[in-house]
Write a structure and sequence with these properties.
Length: about 350
């Protein structure tokens, strides 16, 4: 096999350059590749992690939970970057509120933000207190301020209280991550109740509106909002009618709000995850048979782990991305969606 592509760069140079920039960014991928004892002039390793083998693949064991579910009860336990994420000061001194910060993607973002130098407030449901306390401890271990604000975001008054409490305790607010979500599969539209439809919209759409509206009193030029949508916004599953609609609504909200807030110097973007290994799925988000095969349809043949998506949230929140707004960034194991 040739070591050179048509541009004349060797594969070694290209991969080496990539590895260098990943190390600068403090990427989790860089963690296992360097050895402190290495000769400084030695060539960098040829490859990073093979994404196909980097994490567990299906089949997974049967593991039903009641919603909202706990990360601590999942088998295998998700990787939120607890051992791997290395920060490099990209969010130094920033103050972030993350909804659904107790588990899954929100937990991985909370860990990454704290290790990048941000103080972090997390919101979650009271029944998730044990998961949340693990995150609070991790934020504190990173040397940052951690604020825990449990409560139900389907209530508008609580959403206002949440934002004000976060801003008071953090001494301001300049990153808002609207990440909490509800996903309950229903096979037929005739079985989808108004109550369930309403709860999905209240959690995923109304709460994002209420929290963002309340945050406007605190966000200043340079602030960033990062919303969590889904590949479901553009490729809805037959059994997730209500959920997929809410995720499409989040895309439109993100793009419209980005235009509106440009004149205030506030950026608004969203991340669109594909299949990620979190309690959302095993607590009614998918039929258990699908959870046991979760991620098998992704080109990499496995679900993503929350640690693998946190870097997108870091980059979107970081001032380095000062020209990026109104965008949807997808991470789904290789389909090319979005
Ligand atoms: P998760 O279960 O770990 O996180 C969801 C969180 O939402 C919960 O931890 C809970 O704290 C919060 N939440 C739900 N209802 C709430 C309410 N009424 N009040 C307050 N908090 C509430 O699962 P996750 O997969 O990390 O989910 C995070 C986001 O990612 C969600 O918006 C979800 O729709 C989205 N997403 C997940 C996947 C995936 O495959 N896991 C794919 C696409 C999008
Ligand atoms: Mg949770």
């Amino acid at each position: 096999m040739s070591q050179h592509d048509h541009s004349g760069f060797s594969r070694r140079q290209l991969v080496g350059g990539l590895m260098g920039s990943m190390a600068t960014a403090g990427s989790a991928n860089a963690a296992g590749n360097g050895s402190g004892a290495q000769d400084q002039n030695a060539a960098p390793p040829l490859t990073g992690k093979d994404p196909r083998d980097a994490y567990p693949k299906p089949p997974f064991e049967r593991q039903p939970q009641d919603p909202p579910g706990l990360a601590s009860k999942m088998v295998p336990r998700p990787d939120h970057g607890e051992e791997s994420y290395r920060g490099s000061g990209r969010l130094a001194g920033r103050k972030a509120l993350i909804t659904g910060g107790d588990s899954g993607i929100g937990r991985a973002v909370a860990i990454a933000y704290a290790r990048e130098g941000a103080d972090v407030a997390i919101n979650y449901l009271p029944e998730e207190e044990s998961d949340a306390q693990e995150v609070i401890a991790l934020i504190q271990q990173a040397g940052r301020k951690a604020v825990a604000i449990p409560g139900d975001i389907t209530d508008e008054a609580f959403c206002q209280q949440l934002v004000n409490e976060a801003a008071t305790q953090l001494g301001g607010l300049d990153i808002l991550v609207n990440n909490a979500g509800r996903q309950q599969y229903v096979e037929s539209i005739t079985d989808l109740t108004t109550e369930s439809f309403d709860k999905t919209f209240k959690t995923n759409v109304y709460a994002m509106f209420w929290i963002t509206k309340a945050a406007m009193a605190h966000l200043k030029p340079g602030a960033a909002i990062v919303n969590t949508t889904s590949v479901q916004a553009g490729k809805p599953s037959a059994i997730l009618l209500d959920y997929a609609q809410t995720k499409a609504a989040i895309v439109a909200f993100t793009k419209g709000l980005a235009k509106q807030l440009a004149e205030k110097g506030i950026r608004v973007n969203a991340v669109a995850p594909g299949p990620y290994w979190t309690p959302l799925q095993s607590s009614g988000g998918q039929p258990m048979e699908k959870v046991m095969k979760f991620g098998e349809e992704a080109p990499f043949g496995r679900p993503g782990q929350p640690a693998e998506i946190a870097p997108l949230y870091v980059t979107l929140a970081s001032a380095e991305s000062s020209f990026t707004s109104g965008q949807i960034w997808c991470s789904d194991g290789g389909t090319g969606t979005f």
